[in-house]
Amino acid sequence: MQLNTGTASRRISRGVSLIEVLISIVIATIGLLALVGTTVSSARFSKMSQYRGTATQLASDLGERMRANKTGLAAYDMQTNFAGQAVLPAVPGTVCNSFATTCTAAQMAAYDLQAWRAVVRDQLPDGSAFIVVQNVQVAADVWLVWRDPAVANADDAPTTNSECPAALTVGGQPDVRCSYFRINL
Question: What is the pTM of this model?
């Protein structure tokens, strides 16, 4: 009596092939999930980079406004905390946007700040600013501040908001981002 070993070995190899296919599907699934996670992170950091670029352009705009009104530099100082900037201030009584209106340097600075802050609020989510004019060094320290919409909660926070000045009082709000600029006037 002879045993048919060929049939038994074919059955074993069929089972092994099925296990190999299942393992390869699991490995491919893990790889695809990693790829999706990388794509989501890339989109998040791309948006953060866009906000930082916008902040740079806004700081440059403020610097040009301040250079055009050097006699009114002290009036550009704005050290209001983050919560205090939730609502834009009212438009100044004297609108200094035409040649027909004569304005003092302080009135021009107030108008510039109000118009500039409206643009900051429009282009950055909950956009705010913190400005300290350094009279001795003829410079201004500017922090542009916004909420990062990609941060859903404290566990999602990629970094701390230690780049913000203490007087801005944003501690405990991990979704708040600050960009610092030194403007030489």
Answer: 0.73
